[in-house]
Amino acid sequence: MARVVVDVMLRPEILDPQGKAVSQALQRLGFDGVTDVRQGKRFQITIVGELTDERLADLRRAAETLLSNPVIESYDVQAAE
Amino acid sequence: MRIGVVTFPGSLDDVDAQRAAMLAGAEAVALWHGDGDLRAVDAVVLPGGFSYGDYLRCGAIARFAPVMESIIAAAQGGLPVLGICNGFQVLCESHLLPGALVRNDHQKFVCCDQLLRVENTSTLWTSGYSPAEVVTLVIKNGEGGYVADEPTLERLEGEGRVVVRYVDGNPNGSLHDIAGICNERGNVVGLMPHPEHAVDPLTGPTADGLGFFTSVLKAVAA
Questions:
Q1: Residues of B labelled catalytic
Q2: What residue spans define the domains of chain A?
Q3: Which residues of A touch B93 (CB under 8 A)?
Q4: CA distance to partner chain A, nearest, from residue B104 (Å)
Q5: How far apart are CA B113 and CA B193, in angstroms?
Q6: The domain that contains B83 carries what CATH number?
Q7: Which domain holds residue B150?
Q8: How does pLDDT run across B167-216, given as a tens digit for each residue?
Q9: pLDDT tens-digit readout, A32-48
Q10: Neighbours of A62 (CB within 10 A)
Q11: What are phi and psi of A76, to 5 degrees?
């Protein structure tokens, strides 16, 4: 079994109202020095067998097709330890 | 004429859309997300709601429902398709329409009567309106902010593919005050406001929304 982590973030030019709300709450709670928060999604994917280049390429395709919407989001696919 | 209305798990406005189709004089046909059979309908409505709980992203999972495979192929062949609210989100996720819908800029769910200007009266769904006609429809969404990159916005504006635009205030931060758009051919239209909730003055603010359904009826009959 192998694990792969996919991180999905809104593209920088897309407004992130959720991140903004979190940032404001942090400031209200006294966590000084926070200037910006962007909120994303993390997917931990478990697969059977070894993580081959082919499987990784497959998961990149999954990230682009379903896990993210490339119009508004970017993604990063990494093999997990 | 038969107008199909898709029910996804979590659809809310499918019955209202069926009622609007009937009030316009069409036969409403229920379509099921898990069944690719379009039951010989002449047009399809993707209704509002929270398909698949809006998990992942609004419309992201609905896009891969068996019924959508048939609808995407049929829409590319010219079948009239109207996506309302969540249906608009499904159309964008399906790449039948460009851009995406993101969380409202003010972070709140919005639910109100909304003034709109009909900017394009040559689509199959808006041909019954007068050019620049101002109508009142209901709007209710949490993720209704329309975004697209600058070249896409320029193309939409240049080709007259902004179908309806918010007037008198932008309720969700949509770029260019865009409330609804269409594809190049004009058979696929998506909008955030709800024409199906404004078909009868008894239950809605106006009957201004009925025009979407009577327009497609006339277009298909022609």
A1: 85, 194, 196
A2: 2-79
A3: 69
A4: 7
A5: 9
A6: 3.40.50.880
A7: 2-221
A8: 999 999 999 999 999 999 999 999 999 999 999 999 999 999 999 999 99
A9: 999 999 999 999 999 99
A10: 17
A11: -140, 125
The DSSP symbol for B49 reads B
Q: Specify whether the CB–CB gap between B155 and B163 falls below 8 A.
A: no
User: Is the ipTM above a cut-off of 0.90?
Assistant: no
d(CA A70, CA A10): 9
What's at B71, amino acid-wise?
A: I
Long-range contacts of A26-31, Cβ-Cβ distance < 8 Å, separation of 24 or more: none
Given a contact cutoff of 8 angstroms between Cβ atoms, the answer to whether B120 and B107 are in contact is no
DSSP character at residue A70: T
Sign, CA torsion B153/B158/B162/B168: positive
Q: Are residues A17 and B60, on separate chains, in Cβ contact within 8 Å?
A: no
Which pLDDT belongs to residue A77? 97
Token look-up 């005050």 returns B177
Q: What is the CATH number of domain A2-79?
A: 3.30.1280.10
| Chain B residue with Cα closest to A66 | B60
